[in-house]
Amino acid sequence: MNDDPRATGYEPLYTLKPVARDLWIVDGPAIRFYHMPFSTRATVIRLADGGLWVHSPIELIEPLREEIAALGPVRHLVAPNWIHYAFVAEWQAAFPQAESWAAPGVAERAASRGMALQFDHALTDQAPPAWAGEIDQTIVKGSKVHREAVFFHRSSRTLILTDLIENFEPRKLPWWMRPLVRLAGISAPRGHMPPDMRATFDKPALGASVRQMLDWGPERVILAHGACYGAEGAAELRRAFRFALR
Q: What's the CATH superfamily of 16-245?
């Protein structure tokens, strides 16, 4: 593990990394959450009209802004849950033509932290016309605390989650954090929903949402924290949410 407190083990940071055709991830620096370093990751999709869809924007620096701008016009900025919104304002300032989309609870959470974020649209269970037919979506049911929008990129068969599964790789963590993630069951390669989040969910309602994701037929799963699943996405989903599918 690098001694740099912003290192994540997913270097290089702040650069587009291709995952599939018209789909990239961008790894960002570690941020502190509950006093622990969490890696950050954005997902970028180029839509059929050439516009870019950016999920969970990370910290924006000038080289990344230039690389993104060269890829296409940023049209959509997506804050997928009540935790992932911190850098949206930076992207709004850099790409003022982009429309901003927020999951339930995002604006309220930001306001409670003294951030006057403005969003153009609320995310719902239905994909808006801007990306309908290319990206499917739903708001995961079962919790009044954690309301997360999840997405499925049809052409690459990629499911995009944020915090519903955490899959930290111990070798990339500080030594003191490794036993904590193992104890919590969020250690790669068998990552799960964090136990504090799981405690807020009604299992039958969550199970229905997971079945909808399985119906999409995901081949890979992108996560915000830790290792993504590059294959057998549906099997990993069944494993991680077995407790809700019984």
A: Ribonuclease Z/Hydroxyacylglutathione hydrolase-like (3.60.15.10)
